Amino acid sequence: MKHFLASILAGAIALPAYAADYTIIAPANPGGGWDQTARSLQTVMQQEGISGNVQVQNVPGAGGTIGLAQFASQQKGNPNALLVGGYVMVGAILTNNSPVTLKDVTPIARLTGEYEAIVVPAASEIQTMKDLVEALKKDPGAVSWAGGSAGG
To answer: Is 142 contained in some domain?
Structure first.
């Protein structure tokens, strides 16, 4: 994985003639999935000589939208600043009606994939997606949900 990340970064980022300092924003608490991704990037960038100094900055809150807003406003035009994100942020932008969206940043690489699963107890009346959609149409408030994020 180390060489995979390094090759993606080397091809996706226009590097100066010297190893610049980088900041990676992990819009979550330390230890979560985005933090782990940011710290993996930090390690690879340092080991591969892309940069001698890579700092990870955690900015938790609101499904990543606080970190997104901070990144978009404070790092605008900075080629040495990166932001880690994922599907949780996409949902949080919609749910929180965030004024800052992914239109305010430029995606440069997809490093991971995310899968979503919907599960129910074996004895549930809902056994298929069709059942779930029908239950939501009939009475959305009667369908309870829970969720989270990988590493969160």
So the answer is: no
Cβ pair 96, 57 in contact under 8 A? no
DSSP assignment of 100-144, as one string? S-GGGS----------------TT-S--SHHHHHHHHHH-GGGS-
pTM over 0.85: no
Q: Give the domain range for residue 67.
A: 2-104
Q: Is 82 exposed, middle or buried (0-12, 13-18, 19+ CB in 10 A)?
A: buried
| In-domain check, residue 24 | yes
CA 47 to centroid of chain Cα atoms: 23
Are 112 and 37 in contact by the 8 Å Cβ rule? The answer is yes
Phi, psi (rounded to 5 degrees) for 12: -95, -20
Distance of CA 99 to the CA centre of its chain: 18
Residues facing 82 on adjacent strands: 24
Percent over 70 (pLDDT), the chain? 84
> Is residue 119 included in any domain, yes or no?
no
Tokens representing residue 28 in the block: 């979550």
- Is residue 129 in some structural domain? no
Q: For the chain, what is the domain count? A: 1
